[in-house]
Amino acid sequence: MNVPRTQDGPAPAEPPPATAATVAAPGGPAPGDPAPEGRAPGGPARPGLRFVPGLLDPGNPALARAGGPRGRRLVVVDARVHELHGHRLHHYLDARGVDHETLVLPGREQVRTMDAVFQVADRMDSFGTSRRGAPVLAVGGGTLAQVVGLACTLYRRSTPCVRIPTTLHGLVAHRPEVETLVDPAFLVTLGRRHVAGGLAEVLKVALIADADLFGLLERRGRDLLDTRFQAAGIGAAVLAGVVGGRAEARTGAGAGGGQERPRHYGHTFSPTLETRALPKLLHGEAVCLDMALTTAVARRRGLVDAEQAERVLRLMRRLELPVWHPLLESIALGEALGGALADAAQRRDGRRWLPLPSGIGAGVLVDDLGGPELVGAAWWLRAWSAMAAGGCGPAVDG
């Protein structure tokens, strides 16, 4: 796949050495073959999810058949994705004889409004979308998928939707009740910073649920970043581990008793950070800052030792992710992040549940984090970040 531009900026000077359409994870289907229904390459079955390399190849019937009987389709697509892939998408649907209309929406956070939801619902109505027979195709990142999903839920008591994620975040944030077709070749057109942001979502799963995946990121994470997940023998395997449900299965039981499941790690402080820093801070970067701060909390509590904390924070830097931001500092920390804990409590049965790493590859839930402890962890993290940026030796301890 040789695309001259990326979803958020200029393409790399040299194209990646391979495309995911020709890469299979060990034990997966042969190169070029789609994975079985509901199965990631080399991964377990997962409802509603299919890995389909070459999704826009007119010879591949998967997209035309997705979501129900062949018929008319409303396609809602991210503006940047449409600019890059729209001609191939329309060529595919025309070649497969699929009558369709297209609604192009602005990308990323610009589309996360109720106006956008109503715009999708209005187009569904004018298009004559039936409740069961004409699923809407959502082509873009996670934010667009959320907007389209809500519109489909509201329209005629839930109209089916088929997701075609084109970003790492959209791919990782798969909802099992929604049919999702994954072609990792879309990731070729992501800019490097957005690939790094997506890697934060992968690192989140690794740190809290999958020590083997964490080790893989330590060894080959930069390869994933450099090749946009197209590196032979590694890209599909990592996606299989995250998207295919292997890591989620380890955390899905949660802590019980209504407690927040560890899989929500990274989303306690990140919403506040992301909102206050827009547009300078990407979602994945905010998630990584959340993980860095909670790793510092875990270090000071003895849940991770000094060597493990070093591994976590140095891997973040190696993946070109931030470990510190001024919003974490002094008074802003006490006010903004204390408010974030209160906001999280509203979503978590009134309890201030905070997922923390316990070693690497496991997590625990605590509900006794206080402001002074959080401030102390932030100061520890700031000191570590300053030493790492200055090229000093091991980070401060304690």
Fold blueprint:
Layout: E1 49-51, H1 62-65, E2 73-78, H2 79-95, E3 100-105, H3 114-127, E4 136-140, H4 142-154, E5 161-165, H5 168-172, E6 179-182, H6 192-209, H7 211-227, H8 235-243, H9 246-251, H10 270-277, H11 283-301, H12 306-318, H13 330-347, E7 354-357, E8 363-366, H14 371-389
Parallel strand pairs: 1-6, 2-3, 2-4, 4-5, 5-6
Antiparallel strand pairs: 7-8
Helix pairs in contact: 3-4, 6-7, 6-11, 10-11, 10-13, 11-12, 11-14, 13-14
Structural features, described:
The protein is α/β, with parallel strands linked by helices. Helix content is 45%, strand content 9%. The chain contains 14 helices and eight strands. It has helices at 62-65, 79-95, 114-127, 142-154, 168-172, 192-209, 211-227, 235-243, 246-251, 270-277, 283-301, 306-318, 330-347, 371-389; strands at residues 49-51, 73-78, 100-105, 136-140, 161-165, 179-182, 354-357, 363-366. The strands form two sheets. Strands 1-6-5-4-2-3 form a six-stranded parallel sheet, with helices on both faces. Strands 7-8 form a two-stranded antiparallel ribbon. It starts with 48 loop residues before the first strand and ends in a 9-residue tail after the last helix.
Question: Key terms for this structure?
Answer:
398 residues; alpha/beta; six-stranded parallel β-sheet; 8 strands; 45% helix
